[in-house]
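Z., the sequence and structure:
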Amino acid sequence: MTFSVWAPGHERVRIQVDGVTHAMTAADGGWWHTEVSGDSYCFFVDDDETPLPDPRSLRQPAGVFGPSQRYSHDFAWTDSGWAGRVLAGGVLYELHIGTFTAEGTFDAAISRLDHLVSLGVDFVEVMPVNSFDGVAGWGYDGVLWGAVHEPYGGPDGFKRFVDAAHARGLGVILDVVYNHMGPSGAFLDRFGPYFAGQNIWGPALNVYGPGSDEVRRYVIDNALGWLRDFHVDALRLDAIHAIVDHRAKHILEELAEEVDALSAGLRRPLTLIAESDLNDPRHVTGRESGGYGLGAQWCDDIHHALHVFLTGEEQGYYKDFAAPQALKTTLENAFFHAGTWSSFRERTHGRSIDKAHTPGHRFVAFLQNHDQIGNRAAGDRMSATVSPGVLACGAAILMCTPYTPMIFMGEEWAASTPWQFFASFPDPDLANAVRTGRRREFAEHGWGESEVPDPMDPATVQNSTVDWSELDDAKHREMFTTYQALIRLRRTYPELADPRLDRFKVDQDGRVVTLHRGSIKVVCNLGSTEVQRPAGEILLASPGVDVVIPPESFAVVR
């Protein structure tokens, strides 16, 4: 069998296979090859005796510092009838494999997929499963992007999860990170010019400088592999604003072209969803119109506007969203900052979208997600701040907008468990740096050291694991039933999922918000006075701290 590795500019490259070292032969373009039999392998570059895993490794059974292992994509798939799902009209559910169940594995997560079917969602969005140093972590510190994290169940475990999701009619979105490498085990620069500077999270990839053709191929091949070999339906691209590319064709546009080509070949929809801080509509504008052609992007502005409206928090980047009509402006336009002043950034920010030609389903909206909860000092959820009634009203607004709604695991039953920042780097110096850096960051905002959970403490992971027994509690169950009813309502009345932004209007009268959805109006009253509305409208209220809106009130009277 042939082993290959890209290592330009080196005098020699050796490979150790099953404990035996072999010379490799240089070929064109900086590639090295050899024919040898075996499964467990690592590389040595020049005279360095440090064993290096394969940058394109598909399996790391001993972790990111161990040898790579040959892996065959042969798998007994049962999803031959799966035709895929389009994003338009769908409802997403974000989860983290390590804390979705007490076991923290793909197989354990499979046992909870029927819950998601009962809830009514269409897609499961899985946070990164690539290989990272340590056992527990969010996944954004991955260093071997093609190898599935072994503690979760490895590559076959992930395939079982995708196969089981498809059997239940659920599409699978995978979160991938192409903007940086993690701080531990990132050996790519030992092989070649993979890195080009740093961003706030770690080494950034060289996607436009000398030698970048193969680096770009490294990214694109990784993305195509998840979609083709693991049958994933969509990729969520983490923090694309941190990918610096000065080429005429941005790597995201090139990636979108290749994914569309693969979609045609596989005859099922494949979608790219960006996370971006830029408020730039070009990301979700078609390539024929000069855009990148991505299928959708996360929309933080909608989250911020809803968060401020529901919780009253106004600190930091929430300040701008405390304006009297901020919720109306953001809901109607997707971006609040659209060429307007951002006090947090101390400059103008963003660009307005073309509402006549940009459908709302290209913007993923949410009340909560892993970032907006986990990057709070204590990792507290919105349910720790607002009453069940207010949370229900927020969910109603979210589900009845033209956007693609997303739920974060446990949100649907107002989980009492926090979701905190955690990692498990074995290197004590790195672990301490992360611990002290986290505490120092929040100390600047008035938090005491004891108030910020230790990200390296296994108890932080345990505290962040959702407690499924809460569904047996009447109040938590009532919130779940409310979310169920809202999703069902969205299915029953197509006007509520209509993505046409130029037909969407919002009235904001103090604490009363009215969404105009075709012949239906959705009225959410978060004020203290009763609001009288005529038949033909859905009336949601937040009458008390312990009262959830009963689902039977979600009937539309024509």
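Residues 95-177+234-240+272-496 form a domain with the TIM Barrel fold (CATH 3.20.20.80). Residues 543-548 have pLDDT under 50 and may be disordered.

Let me know what you think.
H.
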